[in-house]
Amino acid sequence: MNNEGTMKSFMKGAVLLTIAGFIVKLLSAVYRVPFQNLVGDQGFYIYQQVYPFVAIFGIWTSYGFAVAISKLLADTGKQSHGAILRIAVTYVAVISIIVFVLLFFGAELLAGWMGDLQLSQLLKVGAFSVLLMAPLAVLKGYFQSRNDMAPVAYAQVVEQGLRVAVILIGAWIVVSSGFSLYAAGQMAMLGAVAGGLGAAILLLLYFRNHSASLKQPTTTVGAWSIVKEMTAISISVSMSSLILVLFQLVDSFTVFRLLEESGMGRLVAMEQKGIYDRGQPLVQFGILIATSLTLAIVPLVARTSKKNSGRPAEMYARLAFRVSFLFAFAAAVGLTFVMPYVNETLFQTREQSFALIIFSWQIVWMSLLLIMTAMLHGLGKVRVPALLLVSGLVVKIIGNWLLLPIWGVSGAAIAGNIGLMIVVIGLLFYFKKVWPLTFAPLSYYGWLFGAAMAMSAVVLGWSILADNYLFNNLSSRFGALLTTATTIPLGALVFMALIGKSRIITEKEWYIIPFGRKLAGLQLAINSKKKGEMR
């Protein structure tokens, strides 16, 4: 009975974190669109150049360290919790201060390496957000160790909500008041500070009721061993979440500089980098399904792999892979044919749509990468995935230097795909070695590619008809909006109808995944209609 209660509590917490994670990722993808519309491609370039510096440390601490602290607390007796938390606070605080000093006092040096000294002020503002990471990481880890996910989930939503609000409202005020685009970028960096502060205050309010239990006498623990384990766990679990941001950091140091060195004018190079960065929200939106599955299903893999009863871990692993690949592949194929219209609808022009098509295929690699690294981590395998991710980063760096001078931003997009593809291939081979599991039968891939081909034909035909004949008398952007708004649902309907008929994912499996009930209902309706027609 106790085990059943624990599982119910775990599932409730997992669902809450899944919903919060989905909201956070959705906001992260969506806010960039109105921000780019407010500040233009040059303003978007300014923000995207500096964003990775703050994001990398934020992901490592508030996610990686939180998981590490949670694991350490869960694996030790309550008598040691006070000592572990004190060590964790001190350690993360020291790292935060070091990173703050490097970002704030090294801002001019880093901006010089990026080729734009005016970015230094943005780095200085963003540096203050890292000072909030110690309370965020430790408090999140504490609540997660107690399986009390509500404070963590609420803090994530509050943090992202405040951040987005400050970014958009601040950018609007700055631009409408006639200040420079760099001032708008500083306001955007201030959003990270506001979000972190709001989340820290909320977690501290929740923590007040728990602080008394930590004042009891505690046993001593080895500080050095705690620090070593915390570092190893935090880096390994956050690497898969960091990889896309690390790729952005590589782009921050290489794309603008290499474009300018290849003979492109300074302002044009800034705008090209800003246009290239339009791909980031598209990829983030495309991997929402994989992120949700990682949060919801992968913990079940970790738990069920240690049990002999109940649903087998293999079922969850196969389901996570198949659903993630299905939606990621559909998104990438669909964007290939509607990108010019999506590009203009969201970002005002159709410029560099081909480069963005290439960029959008990172959705497939990132989705598979997130699922496999998370499952391997659940099995306790972290070192090899981390090394593979580092190798992908090296390939991205080399690819940018070789391909950017030849193909411009398309070269950078190709380099990103190659880097992620190498990581995914390596993970597949390693997964087969660790856990010889067949993710899906050949019929799954056959139906998937067949559904994608049918969707492509319908999407291409309708988009050409809509763009050239139905909406060609309207303003260009409004016409693109209507083309996008009609083409995407039509393509999705065709794709899901064929997937539903194939039943390559059963109704019972749809029920397991987040928000899968409606898809299960749709699939039942499709197949019941088919049976009725046969009669």
TrEMBL record:
It is found in: Cell membrane. The chain crosses the membrane at residues 53-74, 83-105, 125-143, 164-183, 189-209, 230-250, 282-302, 323-342, 354-372, 384-403, 409-430, 442-466, 478-499. Coiled coil: none annotated. It comes from the Bacteria. GO terms for cellular component: plasma membrane. The keyword Nucleotide-binding does not apply. InterPro entries: PG_synth_SpoVB (IPR024923), Poly_Biosynth_Transport (IPR050833), Polysacc_synth (IPR002797). Pfam families: Polysacc_synt. It is a multi-pass membrane protein. Keywords: Cell membrane, Membrane, Transmembrane, Transmembrane helix. Its main location: membrane. PANTHER family: POLYSACCHARIDE BIOSYNTHESIS PROTEIN C-TERMINAL DOMAIN-CONTAINING PROTEIN, PST FAMILY PREDICTED COLANIC ACID TRANSPORTER. This is Membrane-spanning protein. It comes from Planococcus antarcticus DSM 14505. The lineage of its organism: Bacteria, Bacillati, Bacillota, Bacilli, Bacillales.
